[in-house]
Structure formats: C-alpha cells, structure tokens
Amino acid sequence: xxxxxxxxAIGLTLAVLAVLGTDVTYMVAGAxxxxxxxxxxxEKTVRGQALTLALGLPTALAAVSLGALLHxxxxxxxxxxxxxxxxxxxxxxxxxxxxALGLIGFQVYFVSLFVNxxxxxxxxxxxxxxxxxACSAVARFALVPETPQxxxxxxxxxxxxxxxxxxxxxxxxxxxxxxELDDVLDDLRRHTARLHEAxxxxxxxxxxxxxxxxxxxxxQRRVADAEVAAERLGMLLLNARSAERADTxxxxxxxxxxxxxxxxxxxxxxxxxxxxxxxxxxHLMVARPADANRGTAVAHVRNRLLGYRDEERIPPGxxxxxxxxxxxxxxxxxxxxxxRLALDGPQDESDDSPATTRSREEFDAEDVSITGAxxxxxxxxxxxxxxxxxxxxxxxQVAVGSALAIVxxxxxxxxxxxxxxLTCWVVFLNTASTGEIVxxxxxxLLGTVLGVVAGVALAGAVGNHTWLAFVLVLVCVFAMFFTAxxxxxxxxxxxxxxxxxxxxxxNTYSFDVLVLRIEETALGAACGIIAAMLVxxxxxxxxxxxxLATTLERLGDVVAAAVEQLSGGPAADLLDKARDLDTALDDxxxxxxxxxxPITPLRERRQTARYLVALLETSAYHARSxxxxxxxxxxxKRVGADPRLAxxxxxxxxxxxxxxxxxxxxxxxxxxxxxxxxAAMLETDGLGVPAANTVTFRVLRHxxxxxxxxxxxxxxxxxxxxxxx
Length: 725
Prior knowledge:
By secondary structure, the chain is mostly helical. The protein is built from 26 helices and two strands. It has a two-stranded parallel ribbon. Strand 1, helix 26 and strand 2 (721-723) form a beta-alpha-beta unit.
C-alpha cells in the first residue's frame, strides 16, 4: 500500500506539472519531493499525518532554499550539510513527527543538489514543491487513504490468510513422504513465522484501530489464542508422525535434524484419512467468508471439530499422540470461532451443537472478564540520557561519517560527491550496532552494482522517450517499496535503476556516471563503517548480550505470571507480558543478523547465534501457550488452578535468573540446575502425575519443554549445568 500510495503521489505530481508545461528538471524535482513527502510520514492517525505533512512543506522550502543559496559556497555548504544531517538524525528522539521532518529536510536538500538548484530557480522550485506536497496529500487522504481502521482491517484479513496457509502446510506435513519432509518442514516453519509476524503487526495497530480499549483487548486475546492453537497443532502433527517425540526446536531451527518417521500415521489408515478431512474442515472454517452461516458447510464442520474438545468424541482406537492431534484440532477450531466472533461480530446460532454452545458461553464469560478488568499502569523505564541515548549517538556517528564521505567524495567527483553522503546516511537508518551497519553497507553496495547494470540497459531502451522513462521510474518506485521488507539489496537495486533513468531525463546519463555511483556508494559505506567503529561504537556482541538479557527477563516475567495464575494466584495481564516478550525476541533476532549473515567468517559463532535464537523462539512458544491456558483459569469451568505447579516452576525461574546474571557479567554462585523432570517433581505429594487428557498435564508438558530449553541455553553461553546441591 505504501508503494501504491507513493506511485499515485508521483504520478499525480507529474500529471499536474505536465499540464502546466513544466521543464523536465522541475518534473524530476517534483517527483522526488512527492516521493519523500509520502514515504517519510509514518504516523498512525489521519490528524497526525495531516499535521506532519503541513509542517513538511515549510521544512522542504527551507531546505531547498539553503541548498540553492549555498550552491556556490563549497565550504559553507558542506558544513551546513553536516549540521543538517546531525539534526535530521537527532530529531528521531521526538517520535514519528521528528523523524519525518528530519527525513524531509535531508532528502529535499539532496534533491536541490541532484538538480543543481540555483537562486534564480527558487520561485519555480517553490511552486513545484508546493504542487508535490499537495499531490501527496491528495494521494494519502483521497486516492489511497490510510486510516488506522483500514490498516487494521487489512492486517486482520492478512492474519486469516496466513492462518489458512499454515493449516494447508500442516496438511502437507500429514501426508509428506520421508524424502519430502525437509521441504515440508521448511514450509511449515516459514508459515508459522509469518503468522507470528501478522499477529505482532495487528497488536501494534490495535490501540489506534479499535474504538475502545475493551475491543482492542478482545481482539488481542483472540489473535493470540489463534496463533498459539495453530502453532500447537503443527507440533502435535509432527509428534504424531515421528518415531519419537519431536523436539519443539524443529519448528524454529532450519538446521534442526528431521525427526525419523514413525508408524503411527499411514496414508491408508482410517485415522490419517479422518485427520486429513478435519484439517480440510479447519481450513474451511478459517477461509470461508464471514457471512457464511446457517445451512452452510461451515456450521456442520465447526460443530464436528468443536466436539473433539470432549474426550468421548475423539475417534477411538487411536494412539495417545494421534488423540492429541484431534484435541489440537478441537482447540484450533475453538480459537477460530473466537477469532470470527471478535472480528466479525455475532453470528447465527441456530445450527449450534452443544459443544459449540458451550464454546460460545466460554467466550461470553471471557468477554465479561475483559470488560471488567482494569488496565494496569504500564511500567515506565527511564531512557538513557546524554551520549548514551541512541539518537544522540547515531547523530554524532552519521555527522562524522558524512564529513569523511564529503571529503572523500570530493576527490572522486566535485559534482556527484553527495552520493557518498547519501549512502553513509542510509546505512545508519534502523541500525543499532556496528555489525548491522557493516551488513547493511554490504547489501547497499551489492544492490547498487546490480542496479548499475540494469540502469545501463534501461537507459539504452528508453533513449529520448521522456514519458516512457517516467513510467519506468514509477515501476521502480513501486518495486522499491514492495521489496524493502524482503531484501535491502533488492531495494537498492531498484533505487539505482531508478536513478539511472532520472539521469537520462536530466541528460546527464553516461556509463561513467553510473560507475561513479558505485565508487561513491562504496566510499559512503566505508565511511559509515569507520564512523560506527570509532565514534561512540556499539559492538554487536554488547548489543546482542543486552537484548539477550532483556529477552530472558521478559521470558521469566511471562512464565512467572502464568504459573502464578495457574496455581490459583491473582489474575495478571498476561497478553501484554507475552507481547513484550515477542518484541524483545524480535529485537534480538534483528541484532543477530550480522552474526548469522552468510558473509560472516566465524561459522561457529554463526551457528551458536542461530541456535540461541531458535531455543528462545521455542521457549517463547511454550511461554505463550502457558499464558493462553492461564487466561482461562479465572472464568472457565473446565480449567482449574493447581497449586502444585508453583513448586514445579521454581527451577525454571532460578535458571533464568542465573542466565541473566551471566549475560550481564554479574558475579553469581552456582550454575543452571538440572535433575528430575518437571512432572516427576509432582510425584512427591502422593497424587501422581496428572492424566494425559487433563489441562495440568498439558501445562506440565510446556513447563518441561521450557525447562529443557533454558537448560539448553546454558551450554552455548558457557554456564555450568549440574544437579542442585
């Protein structure tokens, strides 16, 4: 949508300028300004977007004026450019609006350099920029409107589509022959990760996209339930078709060994045929339009699948692992029903079975608990001050790197030196450590080299056809936005191809210019890396250790709160705690990219980083499952508290504390405790291990996996493991 909106803004700007008979130079300036005036604004509310856009125009006018005034004053212009870069990066501390205005100021100043703006051109440039901002406003608020409600609506439909794709991948897992299991597991991992990404995106938009906090909390809970139920179903299917109980790590680590295929499920077995049918029915529940109600196949299959929540409805004659799959399908069907009720509102109930009616009553009880719950005040954490503040540190780093890029760029070309500065600027965007900057600089250079080759081909094909060049520019702009989340190198490729077309329009294209573009890009990336390493550096190891400790602390918070509630303690806001864990884990995953990138020469460290993240992803899955189960305790008639669970979880809490202390280099005595299984720890009270079909047994299974995952983290972190003394 961002790509469509930006293309619409640029296209409308070009159309207006063409009608007015504007010169090509001003059309290029207008197109580039419309692009930055559209993509720079990231605020969520319409009012905030309008205000930032209104403030962006005078910011752009000031930037282009100073660019024209300082055009012939080399030293003063360079000093101002460095100051502008510092201010643009520092302004990020003021949120989305500060980030947008800083980006507009920098990019429009760059536009003035690109078109060689002079003082006598300022009146026409002012008019061009005003038209570009007006067209950006029309595209944003009329042609391709973006409101929090519309964005949330699209994300909800995307979540449903991801959920349907995951169920399809799970069906493939059911029937996959051993020789295809590797590919099927890769597909399952990918769709599981994408469902999780969609859930996080929804939760990030709930506050602005829903009418009140109660509705937001309801949607948040239903999305979390659906995600956990779907991921659990995939794990149960993997267990059912494996010779031994599969490790949860298999769903999160691409290099995990493929479990040996067992004999529990065969293509010709009746149980396999029934599971295949029921997975197809679950897919129908997820993918069928919301208006499918009475008299449709959805009501029939929904009633049948929800029946699996009753033990007497599970097909007889099957093994425990296969019975678990049927139970998982029943829980997934319940989660899908809750998701439909939360997203689509009340539905026809005339075809309900007793199992469906009971599920609706459970949802009604949950809704009452959500309505009556008071929102706990969020913890406020003090932001680092001074040079430790990320925006301040980045501002100094970019300013120093840009100064080096200006000096070096002038030696390469007195006319195109600003390309080095632009590269130095962009490699610092959305990066937080030296390693991230190195990887981003490498990707930028790779995309630029390939883009130069494409630019040569496109320039030759376009020739003197101005409008064909503009059309291809629009194609490149859309491709740039579309590929940005997928590959930074691919995005850089389309940026460079677009610039080759713009040079063609300005009649300044030559092969030497594009080669110079590569040289300036390499120089800018090198200057950025040098600045990151010498000026207030943040080492990748330090960054990942900090985020690892935060993730472990969040994991401990979720587990402790969930177990306390499962043991009969007071209700807590578990979903918010789980969301904090997911956010911390995503930050950690991003920070380890320099360690896991293919160009990293240290293969052992790369494997260790991937293993740690996969173990934490597995542990987070079990923590989310615990939280989802604990949420049912206060109002469910089927899920009761078990005080024994608090004792069983003490070892997990202790081990997490030991790992956090080790990562933070705090002095700690002892190491990670190991010993009897979590379930065995309950046998001392004489009541024995709970039956396999009870909620307590399921909770114990998640606690056991958590215990194993936390213990598994100790080895790569160098923490001693042994029995309790």
